[in-house]
Amino acid sequence: MASEQQPPSNAASGKLWGGRFTGEIDSLMMAYNESIHFDRALYAQDIAGSIAYARANVATGILTPSEFSAIEAGLQQVRSEWEAGTFAINPGVDEDIHTANERRLGEIIGKDTAGKLHTGRSRNDQVATDLRLWLRDALREVEALLVDLLKAIAIRAEQDVAFVMPGYTHLQRGQPVRWSHWLLSYGAFFAGDLDRLRDVIRHVNKSPLGCGALSGNAFNIDRASMAAELGFDGLVPNSMAAVADRDFIIEAMQWGAALMLHVSRWSEDLICYSTAEFGFVRLADAYTTGSSLMPQKKNCDSLELLRGKCGRVFGQMAGLMMSVKGTPMTYNKDLQESVEPMLEHVKTLKDSLQIAARVLATLTVFPDKMLAALTPDMLATDLAEYLVRKGVPFRETHHIAGRVVALAENEDIPMDKLSLGQLKAVDERFGDDVLSVFDYERSVEMKNAVGGTSKHAVLEQIKILNGVIAGGA
C-alpha cells in the first residue's frame, strides 16, 4: 500500500500553489502554462500593486510598519533589477510575473516577511489589477499619439487650404473639394476615435485589487485607499466580476480595430493618390521602398503596412472574444490568453499612429495635378443649382443639366466650351451669366454651409478639430 504522505515534488517547490500537489509536472505542461516570457512586461504594475496592497495591510494588522517598510524597499529593489535588465528568472519556478516578483522579494528580505504579502490576495485580482494599470497607461500613450496625428492633419489642412481637387463617390469623380476638406474628413473620423478612447480609458481605470480569488477580502482591507494610490478612478464593485472581467481589454481592442479601420481607409486613399494615374501626392523616401527588379518603382510600403495591420488588430480582437465567450464564472486560465494579444495590439496601434503622422507631415502635394484632374462635367450639379436660383425645381434642373452633359459628350467638347447659344437651346432660362458656373473655385466657395468645402467652412472645421484635440466637445 502506498503511503498517504508523499514528499512535495521538485517541480512544485517555490510555486505559490505547490502545497496541494505531490506529483511531478509534465515539462511540456509547465512550458505551456508559464506566462513569464510575456507577462514580465507587467513588472512595474505588479510591483506598484503589491506596494499598495502591503500598505493597506498595515491598517488591517496583517503587517507591522517595519514589515511594510521592508517589503516596500525590497520591491523597489526588484523593480530596479527589472529596469536594469539584471533580474534573473528562475526557470520552472517563476511561472508568471507575480511568482517571480514574490520569489525574488523573499530572497531579498526573507521568506517569512515576504510570505505575508499575499495574505488575502489572489493572483486573480493581482493580474486583473496589473492589466488594468498597464492598459490604462498604454492607452494614455496611444491618446497622445492620436493627438499628434490630429495636430498634423490640422496643420496640413490650414497650410494647404487653397488646393482644390476632385471629390469622389464610387471612386468616380463627383464634385470639386478642397484637399484640406479631404484631410479633415479623416480628421473627423480620428476625432471621433479620440473621444471614444477617452471613454475607454475611463472604463479601464477601475480597481479590482482587494477582491481576492473571487469572493472578496476577509481582512476588511480598504480597497478605496489602494485604488487612490494607484491612480484608479474607482472600484469594480463586485468581486466575482472583478476577477472574471476582460471586457476592458476587449473594449480597448474593439476601439483599436475601429481606429485601424479608419487608418486603413486613409492609407488606401493616399495609395491611390500617389499613383501616376492620380499624381496628387508623393511620399517621402523615408516611408517608401523600391523594387528588387524594377529600378523606377517607389512603393508606398508604409501605407500598405498600415492598411494590412488593420487585419491583424481585428484578428486579435476577435480571437480574444472567442477565448472569453465560453468561460464560466469566475477566473479560468483561458483568460491568460488576453495578455499577449493586448500587448501586441497596443504596440501595433502606437507604431501605426507614429508612422501615419510622419507620412502626413512629410508628404509632398501637387496642387497643379489636382487641378488638372478637375473636369467641367464635375460642375453639372452647379449648373443645375444655377437654374434652382432662378426658381426652377431641382428635379427639373437635374434633368436639364443631364441634357447639357449629354450634349457636350455628343459634341466631344468639355461642357465649359459649349456656347451660350447651345446652352440656351437646351433651356432658354440659361442667362448670359451661366458661363460663370464653370469655375472650380466658385464651386467650392458656394459650399459654405457648416461642414462644407468653402474656405470659411474648412477653417471652421479646423477650429472644431483643435477644440477636440484640446479635450473639448
Overview in brief:
59% of the residues lie in helices and 4% in strands.
Structure notes:
With 473 residues, the protein is mostly helical. It folds into 3 domains: 90 residues, Fumarase/aspartase (N-terminal domain) (Fumarase C, Chain B, domain 1); 250 residues, Up-down Bundle (Fumarase C, Chain A, domain 2), CATH 1.20.200; 94 residues, Ribonucleotide Reductase Protein R1, domain 1. The protein is 59% helix and 4% strand. The chain is built from 19 helices and 6 strands. Helix 3 runs antiparallel to helix 4, helix 7 packs antiparallel against helix 8 and helix 12 packs antiparallel against helix 13. The N terminus is likely disordered. It comes from Lineolata rhizophorae. One of its GO terms (cellular component) is cytosol.
The main sheet comes to: 2 strands, antiparallel
Euclidean distance between termini CA atoms: 76 Å
Q: Write down the Rg.
A: 31 Å
* CATH architecture assignment of the largest domain: Up-down Bundle
Beta content comes to under 5%
